[in-house]
Write a structure and sequence with these properties.
With 302 residues, the chain is an alpha/beta fold. It contains 8 helices and 11 strands. The protein has a 6-stranded mixed sheet.
């Protein structure tokens, strides 16, 4: 097997084509773009206009609720394979139980679909799949399964170019405005820069399925510095509205010194907030206004 020399459409291009009616079928595996894609309105519109939406996941995600076909897949603890962390460390996955009910491993589902279409994927055993990855993906070249889990560890080799061509769904990195350290970025009076990420007890949206983690971090929240809160007349535990040019979200305020002035942090782990509705692809940074829930909402400049 060989890979095409030219890259296929990225996520933004696929969603744009679905919205324009240029892509009739979308096959989503292990992802929830309705909640996680950083342009919630585009994702919502594109998925609603897709002629056939197939979702393969271990959980009945928000995207799966829109699907025409849902393929139940095994969870990470139910199939063998490898996992690559953000630092590039490759680790082995070992199943601790069989997939629940009618769920199948992801590779088994791929093989069944390929067979139904008249294709043979060959061996789907984890060692053979990893061997194929090392042959086809440059950053995994030279890695052996024996090195995975060793004291030295097995790491991928960075192979991403320093500049991404602008034609690949977004601006080149070199074209994106980046402020120098300590440089003050001008913004409209009363606006703050939105920063997102994982909170301490959650990772993405999947961990909300854990009843234990939900007891530790069950309520969405917004964080900002004491100076910004004071300037806006806000106090710790106030119920606030965070509003951008594209949408708004409500949550409880936490006043903290963890973040500098000029920014507001909202964790991206609470599905009920629909945080990505505040964001539009290609707009960075995202400016927002924050006020008490009973306060004036039209403070964002248009």
């Amino acid at each position: 097997m060989s890979l095409p020399p030219q890259p296929g459409a990225d996520v933004h291009q696929m969603l744009t084509r679905c919205e324009a009616g240029e892509m009739e079928m979308l096959y989503v595996v292990g992802s929830d773009p309705l909640l996680s894609y950083p342009d919630g309105k585009l994702a919502e519109s594109a998925l609603s206009k897709c002629g056939l939406l197939i979702v393969q996941d271990a959980f009945l995600s928000a995207t799966a609720h829109l699907a025409d076909v849902v393929l139940p897949a095994a969870a990470f603890a139910e199939e063998a394979g490898t996992f690559t962390s953000n630092e590039g460390r490759v680790q082995k996955l070992r199943p601790v139980r069989r997939p629940a009910f009618e769920a199948r491993s992801n590779m088994e589902i791929f093989a069944l679909l390929a067979s139904a279409l008249g294709h043979d994927l060959g061996s789907t055993a984890a060692p053979d799949v990893f061997s194929e990855i090392t042959r086809l993906v440059p950053s995994y070249s030279g890695l052996g399964r024996d090195a995975i889990g060793s004291a030295e560890g097995a790491f991928t080799v960075p192979s991403v170019p320093s500049v991404v061509p602008a034609g690949n769904g977004g601006p080149a990195f070199g074209d994106m405005p980046v402020a120098a350290p300590g440089e003050s970025q001008s913004h409209e009076s009363g606006e703050l820069e939105l920063v997102t990420g994982d909170c301490l007890f959650h990772s993405g949206y999947i961990s909300q399925n854990s009843t234990i983690l939900e007891t530790l971090a069950a309520e969405p929240y917004v964080e900002m510095s004491p100076r910004e809160a004071s300037a806006l007349g806000l106090s710790d535990r106030d119920q606030v509205i965070v509003k951008s040019r594209h949408g708004e979200a409500k949550a409880r305020l936490r006043v903290t010194r963890r973040f500098p002035d000029g920014v507001v942090f909202i964790p991206e782990n609470f599905a009920e907030m629909r945080l990505n509705l505040l964001i539009k692809q290609g707009e960075h940074p995202c400016r927002v206004a924050v006020c008490k829930e009973e306060g004036i909402r039209d403070t964002i400049a248009t």
